[in-house]
Amino acid sequence: MRIGALAARTGVSVRALRYYEEQDLLTSRRSPSGQRHYPDGAVDRVELIQELYAAGLSSRSILELLPCVVDGEATPELLDRLSTERDRIDGQIGDLVSARDRLDTVITAATANLRTGRHCKNPEG
Hints:
Elements: H1 3-10, H2 14-22, E1 29-30, E2 36-37, H3 42-54, H4 59-71, H5 76-116
Antiparallel strand pairs: 1-2
């Protein structure tokens, strides 16, 4: 599949796909005219790269972790690294849950105040 088709199927820009190649996260073969052609598995790989970026990993970290994530090949050091990344993500999830719970408390209190006719003052005005 050509780069435009991969971009359309994954929702990732052509520019980002080129960047993934520059970072050795994604590979393509070139046609005689220089067009990139990706294997069928490229869609899954791009989606995985996007998930790892969304989790806060750098391209360097993703490159180091991809062999283990994709092929199940791991050294003890790589498994430690994966565990560290998972723990960091768990911490982020905990922080997000706490923020959501705080917002729920504020929303509940504000809703109750609206029902009783009390309103929060806008701090900007």
